[in-house]
Amino acid sequence: MLRNLKLGAKLNLLLLSIFIVIVFLSGLLISKILEKNAEQVVTDKAFLLIETMGAVRNYTSKQINPELAPRLETEDQFIPQTVPGYSAREVFEDLRTRPDYRDFFYKEATLNPTNLRDKADEFESKIVEEFRTNNKLKEKVGFRSLPGGDIFYIARPIAITEESCLRCHSTPEVAPKSQLATYGAQNGFNWQMNEIVGAKMVSVPASRVLERARQLQFVVISVLSVFLLIAVILINIFLRMTITNPLRNMALLAKKVSTGDMTVEFEHDSKDEIGVLAASLNRMKVSLQIAMNMIESESEN
């Protein structure tokens, strides 16, 4: 089939094949690069959120808790505003009302929490145990699968660094009465100073990461395709003007010469290979004409 195609069609087919291969391979490479880039963007934003939550925890522990701590013994119900984790969650939930953060989630996954809402599941417990067994591990990033879809998470350890924390988490005997009245005496005790008890975890649906990558990929591939298409058109025009059209004209002139028309000239101004071919054809035509004249002379004699 290819043997029956004209040279211009073959060149266009070759250029189209190259165009498709370049777009396909570059699309795969760009997809991987943009996925990593989108993941890094989300990671940076998540790390900023974790740092912010850490600042909120410190503020609550050092400034809010001392002011409200005396009331824990007199109030009937526990005052959650004294808990750093509670303040961090409330601030984070307020952040989630903004469009840029609505898909982010925050949890202080704890092995033995006072409020069972913070209880670490099996996957989160393994991460906390990694932090407990490896003191050099300061953060962990990855994906996990859930029934609702994959999520991208970032985790950092929660360590007991303030003595004030042990008032509520050492033993039930020293815990505030309002805490016992609200949460009971079964959970959230026997914590030790400098012990890692949980992990601050920020998560976002993996589709959010992939969606951003796909958007960037579509834009980059579109721009690349446009430039490649322009390149193909320009190359096609160049080949048509410098190769296929001159060759077509030479083929037509050669056909006329073969029928005895010796008045035609193979004209090509450039000194490239096509020009050399045109000059050779002109010399061949002259040689042919001389040979024919000689034959006619011999016939007359």
UniProtKB/TrEMBL annotation:
InterPro entries on file: HAMP_dom (IPR003660), Tll0287-like_dom (IPR021796)
Xref: PROSITE patterns: HAMP (PS50885)
Gene Ontology CC entries for this record: membrane
Pfam annotation, one family: HAMP
Residue spans crossing the bilayer: 12-30, 216-239
GO biological process, one term: signal transduction
Keyword NAD: no
Keywords: Membrane, Transmembrane, Transmembrane helix
SMART domains cross-referenced by the UniProt entry: HAMP (SM00304)
Boundaries of every HAMP domain copy: 241-293
PANTHER family in the cross-refs: LYSOZYME-LIKE PROTEIN-RELATED, METHYL-ACCEPTING CHEMOTAXIS PROTEIN MCPB
Name under which the protein is recorded: Putative sensor with HAMP domain
Source organism of this protein record: Gloeothece citriformis (strain PCC 7424) (Cyanothece sp. (strain PCC 7424))
